[in-house]
């Protein structure tokens, strides 16, 4: 990721100003807590034992004898963390009330959970966020089919850049099984210029360049994958719509209908809004159950034998597309993908 010189200067100024202020107390302040964590300029009073129970890293930290701390707060030693105050707050609130986090988390919360669960090896926090990601980005074709039609059924996406924020985070966390469907979603949600720049708005409101959410390697992977997905769609469309049956009872009419269907499906795949390049939505047809309009057309206009053959060919191409999905983004086969675990 890159940042502009003025932005870097502003960040240094903000850091210096923050360092000159006394620490402020977070809303996570347990009165009978026995340890104070400080992240950035924010302090959190919490339970040492609860942290040690869920995190091997904190257990090791607390096992090292600490000299008497003259800066102790309410008799509690201060442990300084290099994490953001936002990430620490999310981690502590989750440990205190995990059941209150059953609603859809925001992408910011998902990123906090990934960072803190991974860094401090907090098993329940890590497993919770990984399960949510697997629900949002399925690892089986049936799981993909069973998803609700509305994108964002399991994670709350607050703005168009949110899905971009997940790409590098998931890769860095070692969640390989999440990556194929996440990448596929991104190339469907984002125009080519966004994949190239790594951000939806290339400039901030004040006119300065926006910091990309996608790293250079991720952008290359997505652009390359998009080209491959479009190519696969083209080949598979011709394959299943050309599936003539040996038992056809009206070869001339069935051939005409299949040719018309090829043209209709290709034209339908590239219909987009005026703000997008012509082929922008073509990838949306690569993975989907056979739409009712196609199924009705097959059953109404083809003979029974050809309709059955075309339906089987469609389903076969769907499975082939799913099996090939990881390779389109330079990833191993589904069976060889592994997710990092903190256990």
UniProtKB/TrEMBL annotation:
It comes from the Eukaryota. InterPro entries: BTB/POZ_dom, SKP1/BTB/POZ_sf. Residues 33-95 form the BTB domain. Residues 1-26 are annotated as: Disordered. This is BTB domain-containing protein.
